[in-house]
Amino acid sequence: MSYMKNNLKSQRSHNAGASRGGSDSLISLLDIFQIVRRHWQFGAACGLIVAVAVGAFLLMKPRQYRAESSLVIELAPENIIDVKEVLNTNVQNNSMLVSIMNTHIERLKSRTLANAVLAALDPQMHDRFIEGYVGPLEEFDSTAELPDVVRLLLKKALEVNWEEESQAIQIIINHSDPEVAQAVANQYVDQYIQYKAEVRSKSTGDAVSFLGQEVEELRLDLLEREMALQEYRDEKNLVTAVRGESIVSQNLTQWSQAVTNARVRLAGVESRLGQIRLAENQLAALMNIPFIGGRADVKEIYAQLQELRREAQVMNETYLSRHPQMVQNLASQVSVKEALSQAIEQACQEVSVESHTVVAELKDLEASLAETKQEALQVEMDLIEYRMLDRQVERLRLTYDALSTRHSDTTIAERMDLNTVRVLDLAIIPYKPAWPDHQKIALVMCCLAGVCFVAVPLGFELVDGRLSSFADVESYSNKPLLGDLRHFPMKSLEEMAHAVFRKDIDLLEPFRSIYSSLRMKTDLSAGPLSLVVTSSLPGEGKSFVSCNLAAAFATHNYRVLLVDCDLRRPSLHKAFGAENEHGLTAWYASLQSGRKTQASPESESLGIVSVHENLSLLTAGKSSDIPTEILGDSKTAALFERLKENFDVVIFDTAPVGLFSDATLVADYADSCIFVARQFKVSRAKAR
What we know:
By secondary structure, this protein is an alpha/beta fold. Among the domains are: 2-26 and 469-687, P-loop containing nucleotide triphosphate hydrolases (Rossmann fold), CATH 3.40.50.300; 29-33 and 36-61 and 436-463, no CATH class; 241-415. It has 24 helices and 11 strands. It has helices at 8-12, 15-24, 29-60, 94-108, 111-120, 123-134, 149-157, 178-235, 241-279, 283-288, 290-293, 296-316, 324-415, 438-463, 470-477, 493-497, 508-521, 542-555, 572-576, 584-593, 627-632, 634-646, 662-666, 684-687, and strands spanning 2-5, 65-73, 158-162, 168-175, 421-425, 529-535, 560-564, 609-612, 615-618, 649-653, 672-676. Strands 1-11-6-10-7-9-8 form a 7-stranded mixed beta sheet, sandwiched between helices. Strands 3-4-2-5 form a 4-stranded antiparallel beta sheet. The longest helix has 92 residues, at 324-415. The protein starts with a strand and ends with a helix.
């Protein structure tokens, strides 16, 4: 039951929005419960049928046996020697572990391995494997092509499982023959280990071959470089780099020392020449020079001269100047002076010669020093080139040593068992079938029964286009719900119409709730209230609602007038046991005949009767074939206005709005409209 403010004309303008709102609304859990409750018999029956059918189908499937074998993936093989650089098996994090294990799983699921497993089976076991899917080969049509055995193995028989953070992989084979399941599961383990060994052997062999070739090329290159280095050392006369540099440095030091000594000697000689020049050939000054006066021959001659001078001085006191002894003495002095001059000249000449000698020697030494420096620079350049060549040879030698070591390690690793895949468990013959699994079948049956128990009623509801829930009423009317009433088919029309007055325990409280909802939505203190009660189709209970709603207002001391505006099939007079001689149609007929031009609410032609305290009834009169003309007449409008002035609440019971337009005419005289919808009677399209 929906409440519509204003009138049906305004309601018609909202029909499009209501239809859209209904499509967007969500069904509630309560609605689902109500739907299942209404159709649970169909749901239970369908669920039981489907569950039994599926259970029987699953139980009739051929038996399947499950053989399980397992492998363990060692992430790091035992290192007998250090071969980490050859086989790097370190796992850095969990994501790498996942990647490694997924790689193994994909290899186990590959067609290559499946072909190897099937080829390893003996012919009898191979035929038994195929018979598990196509039946006995003797009965198989020879003209037909056998199915792809590898595809059967991969799609129907094989399961590969791995638990996260584990290094074990489980291989499961499902087959109708337990011995075949065991044989295939164990062959998978053996063939995969053999496959990994072949892959490792091939990769290690390739590595050995590659490293051997690289080592030989490096050896030849190293030999060539060392010979070139030796030739360079011989060509440049470098005994060794360090020794050659030391020899050059020693020679340079010696020549530098010799030049320094020569320069010191030259400075001494030049100093003595300067002293000679300062003496200016004066005998006394020359004799005071140590390197002249100190000479033995000069000293001896100078001593003789001094002795002759002393004798001359003594004789001068005795003899005259021409005395023979004086003349002889003078001649001796002259002779000695000449000898002294020659000796001094010789000494000076020796100093001059020594000066020239030292200068020449210094020039030679400086030339030799410059030559030695140039030689040192050349040696340094040769040493730089030598060191560069030596470093290249050393780097090549280190590379050669590293590759030789790796080649040796790889050669040893090739001969060792470094396979990282090991057998954890071999499969045993399964004696108990894995299928049919009665627990799983029972669980599937229960789930299907539960799904059907809910889905079938929902499907019925989806196909059924009738209003079935509160959400339907609100969605398709786009109006709030005032309340709901239960239907009691065993109660008579009179009992239903007087439910409020008789205080029927089944209907009293629902109508009180509707009355309270109306009180909250309307302001009765502002003036008289007029309501139109209608429905989509006949038989939905609009007259029953009108009677009890009027009674609810009357019991709350409101003066209520109930007007039967269903001029096609009037029924309110029957509900209250009143006469239907008078009423709207009689009143309108009297107006048309000209007997009366207007009527008051108390006029006899209207026939307003009091049916209960505070409740009056205006019957429709006899049915009319011009209901719209009567209800749309201005005189009728004036009558209804006068009626509203004499009552607090006026309730108009109209014909179904889904079939006739009478309610839309009466709605012009009312404040609000109450729409009555019966569950499972009116369609959603009609309600919309």
